Every structure is written in C-alpha cells, then in structure tokens.
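Researcher: Let's continue the batch. This sequence belongs to Putative ester cyclase, and it's 137 residues. Same format as the previous ones, please.
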Amino acid sequence: MGLERAKIVALYARYLDRCNEHRFDQLGDFVCEQVSGSGATDGLAGYIDRLETVHTAFPDYRWELQDLVVEQDMIAARLIGQGTHTGPFDGMAPTGRRISTQELVIYRFADGKIVQCWGDFFPVVRDAMMAAADAER
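Model: Same format as before. Here are the structure tokens for Putative ester cyclase:
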C-alpha cells in the first residue's frame, strides 16, 4: 500500500535535511538496505558512499527543493544545489570554485523508504565545474 502524499512530502523533507546536515549515518531511516538506481553501486552503503563523496569534495554543498511531484509511490524532485569545490571529485583536483547545479531526481518508495533512486548528479556537477572553469577564462 502506498504512502499518502503528505507523508511522502514530509518524509522527503526530513531526508533532504539529513543530506544537507551530512548526517548520512541516519539515512537508513529513509532509504532501504537494497536501494537501487542510477549509481554504479547499489545498496544503502553504496548510496551513502556517493553522498560522502559529494561531501568530501564540496563540504558546504546544500540541496534546495524547487519542485516536488508526487504520483502514488513515486516522486520527482527538482533541486538546486550549491557548494565550493575544496576536495577531490571524480578525478578532479580541488579548484576552490563555487558551483550551482540544477538536478532532477526520481524516487520510488515502498514501506515508507526509498527503494529506487534515479538521478544525474555526477554528470551535472561535472558540467557545472566545466562551466565555472570556462567562465574564468
């Protein structure tokens, strides 16, 4: 049985708060152990590892929810993210550049947790970093 819309919205808001607070050890409250999606590694540990990679490279990175569409057990979230590149990311040395991204992520929920997640964060960040470098030239 699916969650009510209001419960999914509230759950996602709490999840996003934990991500922005870098409290990844609490994501098991929101994401199932067997989560799958667009990442190279499935499972909660791989999911958290990808978020920790972001935090290492962009310690001040924050996501801000712009739009949220809820349809039964799925949501689509349009997010704006900002952070400063002070750590290694995807083979790139720290640049000190501040980037801004726009990202679309689709989630599927079951039993009150995220069971699937499809997003394009890493390509979006790479594009934003290239744009920031081009703007400096």
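Researcher: Any comment?
Model: Residues 5-136 form a domain with the Nuclear Transport Factor 2; Chain: A, fold (CATH 3.10.450.50).
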